[in-house]
Amino acid sequence: MFLVCVSGFLLGMLVPFCEGFSPSTVANINQAALDYVAERGRSSFQNALKMQLPDLPDPNQGGLQRIPVFMFDNSIPQFTLKFIPNYGIRLSAAGHVNMKVFLKKNLLKLQVGVNISADVVISQATIGSLLVDVSLCKSTTEEISVTYKEDELKELWNPLREYVRVILPDKLCSKLHFMVEELNVYMGTMTGIYPLGPESQISYSLTHPPTITEEHMSLNVSTTFYLLGKPIVLPPRVSSFSLPHQVGSKNAMVNFVLPKELFDSIYFLMQKSGSINLDITGQLNSENNQLTTLVLGNLIPEVHRQFPKSMPIMMKARISSVPTSTILGDEVSLKLPYYLEVLVVSSNSAFKSLFSLDVIVELKLRMFVSGVKLQASISFLKDIELKVNASNMGVFDLEKVKPLITSTFKNPLLEHLNALFGLGAMLPNIAKLNYITPEVFVHEGYIVVSCGLHFQS
Question: CB under 8 Å to 161, separation ≥6 — which residues?
Fold first, then answer.
């Protein structure tokens, strides 16, 4: 399973391709990631080498009898992975394997030094995922030493040395090829769609084969958004974003570069799904309920005249146009334009519109990563702006009404948005993968997430 670790986390950036405009996202995988994967993969590789080898013909029986041979408790202390520019990854491993040879009445234990070198080519599959294959594998055996013997069998030594020289390198490379084939099956199962909100989803696909240098691997991925399981068409955008030469932390295993266009698309999806709309009603049994015609009638006489008996009020907030975001310096902000309608609820559950307002809400977003999700906490950047859109209550003094509207609108809105943004957007990932020690860097026009990797056992 060590190759799952090698390339598995790359898979998270790869999911089914979908036509149409999609914002670009970049993921840089550094040498630190390969070092971590090599450390994790070393024990997996050792365990994978525990296997039964083909039986050794017994020279005393003219080859008619077979001698069972097993490998066990292998030790591969040297295990490294390095990028091959414009190609893939080079695996180098060295150590020894321990072999048991079961004679008729005796047991022989051997220790065989091994060196393995393999070139793993990384390309793009037709479905938009990574494709990994071993293009070259070379394995050699070194010194053979006896660690335990129950009898002196000199006539076995020459056949045994030849057996090890011929059989073992082929078995080691065959095991490596098999593990890569397993990996591609595993990678294929990870393509899919991730939830983004109550009714929306997000997916990623590789747009080009990976760019590989001696220092890192760079993946260009496109993003597709879904509403109720169907891809949505994003409004056309002209991107001015260009990837800087150095992004994020040099010591991080992975640096995700998330441009402003990605966040604008997420906010557009939120608008289309209605997830940032809000209905607000007062607690009718509460003595402090401010959303009644009695309270509002003290500020707008016409409300009291039409509704002398106190009745509940509802506020319906609907996004009136596409939200706009700003990523500048160390600040991420979001402007939400709302159409806010104030209605009275009659006894027969019918609604009568009292008046409507155009509302501008400007928010500050603090981005952070939890698990595999990019999340945000929301606070108000400035006071909300109100403007009368229409009124069935005649002309009224908005300044008198503003404190009531503001006090009853801001807290529910903030709670709603924090809950929504707290759901987070899934970063490209695979099963059993978490991003650890994340750092979020805000630059003009884009955000960088730098993090380490942790694979759960």
Answer: 144
